[in-house]
Structures are given as C-alpha cells and as structure tokens.
Amino acid sequence: MIRALRHARRLSQEELAYRAEVSTRHLSCLESGRARPSHTMVLTLGSALDLPLRDRNTLLVAAGFAPVYRVSALEGPEMAHVHQAVSHILRLHEPHPAILMDRSWNALRLNDGALRLFSWCGVSLGGAALLNAHRVLFDPAFGLRPWVVNFDALADATLERLRSEVDVDPSLRAGLAELERLRGASPAEPSKTGPNAVALPVHLRKDGHDLRYFTTLTTLGTPLDVTAQELRIEGYFPMDDETDAFGRRLEAGVP
Fold first, then answer.
1. pLDDT the model gives residue 60
2. What is the CATH number of domain 77-251?
3. Contact between residue 128 and residue 134 where contact means Cβ atoms under 8 Å apart
4. Where are the domains of the chain?
5. Phi-psi region of 208 (alpha: psi -120 to 50; beta: other; left: phi over 0)
6. Residue 40 neighbours by CB under 8 Å, 6+ apart
7. Prior bond of 140 cis (ω within 30°)
8. Could you tell me which residues come within 8 angstroms of residue 102 by beta carbon, excluding any fewer than 6 positions away?
9. Which fold has domain 2-62?
10. pLDDT of res. 253
C-alpha cells in the first residue's frame, strides 16, 4: 500500500525516504513487507505523503492499528465552532459567490451571492438531492455551461485536479468518470488564458454582460478531525470593476 501511495504521489523512494527522515533501505523493506512499520512510522509516512486524514486512518488500519483521527457528524455539536466560522466567511464574501463543499465537491451551503448568480444564469438547482459543484459546470442540463466562455480550459483544469485526487482516493473515481463522459471530446487546440495570467478565470457571458472571477479554496488550517479537514469553501472574486459592480447590482435587485 505504501508503494502504491508513493507512486500516486509520483515520488521516488529516495524522495519519500528524505521526507520521512528514514533510510531508503528501510523504506524499501517497509514497501516489500520485509519490515513492519511502527505506529509512529505509519503516521510519519502519512504526513510525508501528504495524505488526507481519512487516508491516514486507512493506512493505520492496513498496518494493524486503530485509526486515530475522529470522523465527526457534520451537524454534530463538536462541529458547532466550525459552522460558525463557515457562516462568517460566507457572509463576509457577499455580494459575490461562495460555496461550502465536501471532499467530493458536493455543495453543502451556498451564500446568497452564489444563489443570485446561479439564478441569473438560469441554473436549475431544484431537482438535485445533493448538488455537485463540478457537475453543475459540466452537465448542460443545469443550464450554466452555455454561458461559460472558457469551458474547455476550466474542464481540462478540473479533470486534471480530480485525476490527481483519485490517485489517492479511489472513491472519487466514479464521479471523475461521469465528468469525463459529460465533458466529451477535448478540442484539438489547447485553450489559451491570455498574457500574464496568474489564475484561470471563470468567464461568464450572458445578456451582454462579461463576468470574470478567479476562485480560491479555503480549508481548516490545522485539522485533527476528518470531517473538518474535508470541508472547503470556494470563493469567487471579481477580476474587474464590471464584475464587481454587477454583483452589487444583483444584490440590490437591479441586474
């Protein structure tokens, strides 16, 4: 399992041994099963491989140890302070969109800015029991894809990121396969982002309006709980005055 995870992270034995501060020989023995890792070594390797806490628990169980990282219920009392922080961030991001998601990119909460922008785009959110943020982009049935000018570039970047996540978390594979199906054939020419681009924008064009956002992902800084670590907030920041002003007009009810 250690070897498979190392390959998924595209690390050589030398690189992983350096990160874990062990000899290459010892790491080779651990990978081949000639040596059994201690509890501390499993945690060290999990950290060196930069594994999510859920996968560190899996590695511990595979080595014969009990998991050490708690998995809290999302609405449990121990998560109350996290929900307070999330609400604060979503509120401060108004009037622009922000979305709270889980590890599978399912939307758990949307701020009013996100609801207003989706509504303006004609996105239908009513029929989905659990809304997947990536599927909203990829699936034409939701109504967003026709307005995304740089869909090809966004789709390629999204799939590349998800493939790297699937290398470590196979439970995401079915979702990736569905997005690849919805994506369809890639264009022959690679998409261009323009000169001096520092972030791939989300470029929307509808009713004569051109909106450009860049996105950020906010996560809990030092999590000790699996559920807390897997939460992420995607914030949309306007890249120009037109986009900023449009978001404020939507908030005022004047698109």
1. 93
2. 3.30.450.180
3. no
4. 2-62, 77-251
5. left
6. none
7. no
8. 108, 230, 231, 232
9. 434 Repressor (Amino-terminal Domain) (1.10.260)
10. 87
Closest to 168 (Cα-Cα) out of 69, 52, 253, 66? 52
Question: Coil, helix or strand for 9?
Answer: coil
Which backbone phi and psi does 34 adopt, to 5 degrees?
Answer: -75, -20
Helix or strand (DSSP H, E) at 213: strand 209-218
Among the residues of 49-111, which ranges form H helices?
A: 53-62, 80-92
The reported pLDDT for the residue numbered 192 is 58
pTM for the predicted model, two decimal places:
0.84
pLDDT at residue 178, rounded to an integer: 94
Q: Where are the beta strands (DSSP E) in 15-140?
A: 98-101, 107-110
So what's the pLDDT on residue 129? Answer: 58
**pLDDT value of position 167:** 82
Ranges under pLDDT 50 in the chain? 195
Q: Kindly report the backbone phi and psi dihedral angles of residue 166, in degrees, each rounded to the nearest multiple of 5, phi listed first.
A: -65, -30
246: phi then psi, degrees, rounded to nearest 5: -65, -45
pLDDT of 188 reads 59
Q: Which two tokens stand for residue 174?
A: 């079915």
**Strand 232-238 with 202-206, pairing:** unpaired
